[in-house]
Write a structure and sequence with these properties.
The chain is an all-alpha fold. The chain has five helices and no strands.
Length: 211
């Protein structure tokens, strides 16, 4: 009996000692785990903050890149449009200059034919009318082409050139009409005006092209 009590007492003492050791270890274990998890959580928070900063930076870079592309596209469109407008203007000016030269030659031929026929009173009437009809048709075609070139010029060019070109067009048509109505002398009386009109047109076209 006494031996059993002694054994029980020894067992209780052993349990108490184990419990004491366990209790003594708790603060150390708690401190170690706390330090470990504290450091872990701190590192985790820093990593999360870095990731958020990186995501924010990526978003900002994406916005800047998109904005840059939009600006580049806009500038490219503006440059292209400006270049295209200049090309259209150049084509219109050159076309009108070409048609103006053709109209000048046509009205000069018209004048030469009608004046010669008017002076050659003894020449056969049928041949004279045929020549006059040919040069009149050529002048009409040249004037019509000049009209078409003027309409294109009016769309893409400035008002100063359009005004000067319109005045030249009216001058050519009026002069041609006078000649075909039997008054070729009108050409002689307005040679200076004709030259001034051509010169004004040349100056206006150069100004329009920035030359």
């Amino acid at each position: 009996m006494s031996q059993a009590r002694a054994d029980n007492k020894g067992l209780e003492c052993s349990k108490n000692m184990d419990l004491t050791w366990a209790l003594a270890l708790v603060p150390f274990l708690s401190g170690g785990l706390g330090a470990y998890f504290g450091g872990y959580l701190k590192q985790k928070g820093e990593n999360l903050a870095k990731k958020e900063d990186l995501d924010h930076l990526i978003q900002e870079v994406a916005v800047v890149t998109q904005t840059t592309k939009e600006i580049e596209n806009k500038l490219s469109d503006e440059v292209w449009n400006r270049q295209r407008r200049w090309e259209l203007k150049r084509e219109a000016v050159f076309e009108f200059a070409k048609r103006a030269a053709g109209a000048k030659d046509a009205v000069t031929s018209l004048y030469a034919t009608y004046k010669t026929d008017k002076q050659s009173k003894n020449e056969g009437g049928e041949g004279r009318l045929e020549r006059q009809n040919l040069v009149a048709a050529a002048f009409g075609e040249a004037a019509n082409r000049l009209d078409e070139a003027f309409l294109r010029l009016d769309v893409v060019c400035g008002k100063d050139l359009v005004k000067t070109a319109g005045e030249f067009l009216m001058f050519i048509r009026t002069l041609g009409g006078e000649i075909m109505n039997g008054n070729p002398e009108k050409f002689d009386s307005c040679k200076r005006e004709f030259g001034a009109s051509l010169n004004a047109l040349n100056v206006a076209m150069k100004k329009e092209m920035g030359l």
